[in-house]
Design a protein that fits this description.
2 copies of one chain form a homodimer. Chain A is an alpha+beta fold. Chain A is built from 21 helices and 8 strands. In chain A, helix 2 packs across helix 4 and helix 3 packs antiparallel against helix 4. The first copy, chain A, is globular and about 70 Å long. At the A-B interface, helix 3, helix 4, helix 9, helix 10 and helix 11 of A face helix 3, helix 4, helix 9, helix 10 and helix 11 of B.
């Protein structure tokens, strides 16, 4: 079984006309959503600290930091933009694997596009293939790999970045096979880091390391040629279970990017059904925090496993608290970045309501489902069943929703006219003669 | 159990007078041996290809590539020197874990020393502590972690590089704890890569990533504070067994560097008993290849697992062939880089003898032991029991042996007078007012 080589061959041999319209359309939506997140996150303390530590070591000013003024070498730009795009936990989600597919891939190749001219379709093509590679590898090992403790966006993302960068570099099949191998041996990122600055570091590192893997392979830096399937390869060492058919079956026929989703709320996808339901109840019944006696939510077990923090102290920790999230949904009717600020997490009114929230894990509840019961002081009992949260495949965000999200994120960073221009460029990416124009258009000139 | 924090506190609070003479002495020997390997390997194709791929992205010319003329930013210098020092598989070995301790640590801090002035004792102190951290973490998970398929020099080395660099940077306990966390989430490197250019990439990447971890932590880039011991931390995710006492017991009392060993042969340590025995038989009986009917070796099972390649095609693969190694030991009485060249691996005389070698795994044979039976055409049967190979703790290489090895390695790269000067500087490292002088003295001026 030559899984790694077959995947490499597919990426090398794929042609733009082979890519179906559904994949192209979702690629544009994914890219727009990713770019908004990267611009929106660019002033976050996580980015500032990484930049303070590493900017000194940057090579030539090849590539733009999105939303900012600096230009760094493409490896550092990939790292920093990758961090920036995930710092709000607001980027896209491949629900089958909980991978955030765009971060590693787009961060790598948008930086590369500023060094290596590529037109819009060439760029989109590489992007779609990179997402395909990381998500198929994710499909092969999820959920066992995730259960072991790996942050799959980092561990699978590095393959996606390598494949996409290798496609832009025009490497041959042998080199692409090595690129996947060099990616495999850098695959890393622990779920233990959730709630710290290392979480957004993971897609950044995956972008940089995958890009470096492709650049090394282009110079014939050798690697295992069976890095995925060998007894000591990625799928055996980093997972307790694996299904290689998930990598090779239907390759070129189905495209994982068509299954991509986008978050209306600035936190892990698993809490979205609860937030969605709480906002609906708030709006339907005009609830205020003082009306409420208790909120009881019934959720998939993963919700408590990932977001069970009862008393978050900082904004970032709030994203890992279903209790805080339910409280802000009722009080503010939203769960954007503002609702995950330090100030909001420490707001006495939020804390008071948070302490009235109880959550119960129930294996019969699906991951995108939630059951909520709110008891009011006046004795009324309200309930809400969310079958599929907003942002799911069944209830996707519209293009207009995505544009509104983009404006919310980028609006505080770039002037309105520049934001409008960027949105337009994203939708017409396939017609651009030079994809790097998007990166340059996202630079802060002030 | 706050394993990570205790380890961080130990590194931060350790003072040079606390370091026993035995550790200081072995640190000098380790550093000398490492430097010779790094200089000797600096023209290897692996280094050339990595440099061809990555030099374009280097930042300011801060740090020297040992044995070469280029200067790169410290992160790239750490990566390249780390690759160079392991490219011959000739560097030091901590036998309890098969970690090659110096590569990740020395590559990181010698580069850092060119940016951040430090005297000789400060440098040696950080080096000893870095080795302590990586080897203790290795002790905690070896052999289970290695059996899973991890190249422990990469996976544990990143912690050592982070700790040593953090010590030189003077970070506080909190930052050191984060540095170990940022290291943990980059821990990577698969044994599947053995026999390819990715193997020496591992200590290089560990050096660079550990150095970056310390630099990030210095700017308060946050991480888990329980990265080693948490249920989703390094020791649980990357190993099936773990013993945290191996990290914390006797901290500051015993020093792992005192257990370091050096290779007389340019290949994995596990084949050394066989090579040693074959060279002894050759010299004692003046054997030539045509005298021999067969060579039967009985070895620890790991030997066949790691070096069982029967028909290596390239020099690098020869290092993973106990058969090739036994053949060159008899024919050339040596197993240096020359005996692992492409030419030597393809030499018909070597191939003919190689095909007469059989190897049997025997769990009753220790790792540093071998039993060899040579049948001669004239009917004689010779046998040799190697109880401890040359280079082991029981039969260590002398300082003179190490100097001779250094001259062999560096002699082809740097002029003789420069090599002599370098050796002298290594022995007197503790007296240097600026440790970076060693790096500058190892530059190729031609």
């Amino acid at each position: 079984m030559d899984v790694t080589r077959r995947l490499a061959r597919f990426v090398v041999e794929s042609r733009w006309p082979d890519i179906p319209e559904s994949a192209r359309r979702e690629a544009l939506r994914s890219f727009l959503n990713w770019l908004g997140c990267a611009v929106g996150g660019c002033r976050h303390e996580t980015v500032e600290r990484a930049l303070a530590a590493l900017a000194e070591f940057s090579g030539p000013a090849q590539a733009s930091l999105l939303g900012r003024g600096e230009r760094l070498d493409i490896l550092h730009a990939a790292l920093l933009n990758g961090i920036s795009s995930h710092v709000f936990d607001f980027d896209d989600t491949h629900l089958k694997t909980i991978i955030h597919p765009s971060g590693p891939v787009a961060s790598a190749i948008l930086a590369l596009a500023e060094r290596q001219a590529v037109n819009g379709t060439g760029f989109l093509h590489a992007f779609i293939l990179g997402v395909e590679v990381e998500c198929r590898i994710g499909n092969a090992v999820y959920p066992a790999h995730y259960d072991v403790g790996w942050h799959i966006t980092g561990t699978a993302g590095v393959f996606g970045a390598a494949a996409a960068a290798g496609k832009l570099l025009g490497v041959n099949e042998q080199q692409m096979t090595w690129a996947l191998g060099i990616a495999a041996t850098q695959s890393s990122g622990l779920r233990e880091m959730f709630g710290t600055m290392c979480k957004p570091f993971h897609p950044g590192a995956a972008a940089r390391n995958g890009l470096a893997a492709a650049l090394l392979a282009q110079k014939n830096f050798t690697s295992s040629e069976r890095a995925l399937e060998a007894p000591r390869g990625f799928a055996h060492v980093l997972s307790t279970e694996r299904d290689f058919d998930a990598i090779t079956e239907g390759l070129g026929e189905t495209f994982e990017i068509a299954l991509n989703t986008y978050k209306p709320f600035a936190c892990g996808i698993v809490i979205h059904p609860v937030i969605d339901g709480c906002i609906q109840l708030r709006n339907e019944h005009k609830l205020g925090p003082t009306d409420i006696e208790s909120i009881a939510v019934r959720v998939h077990p993963l919700v408590l496993e990932l977001t069970g923090k009862k008393t978050p102290q900082r904004g970032l920790e709030g994203k890992f608290s279903v209790y805080h999230s339910a409280a802000v949904a009722v009080i503010h009717g939203a769960a954007g970045e503002k609702e995950y600020s330090d100030a909001c997490v420490r707001d006495p009114a939020v804390i008071a309501l948070r302490d009235k929230v109880t959550a119960t894990a129930d294996a019969s509840v699906r991951e995108d489902e939630a059951r909520i019961v709110v008891r009011l002081r006046d004795g009324r009992v309200l309930d809400k069943h969310v079958a599929h949260a907003i942002g799911s495949l069944e209830r996707p965000m519209s293009n207009a929703d995505l544009e509104a999200k983009f404006r919310d994120l980028a609006g505080g960073i770039l002037p309105g006219a520049q934001v409008d221009n960027l949105i337009g460029m994203c939708w017409s990416l396939a017609e651009l003669d030079d994809a790097a124009k998007v990166a340059r258009a996202a630079r802060n000139k002030s």
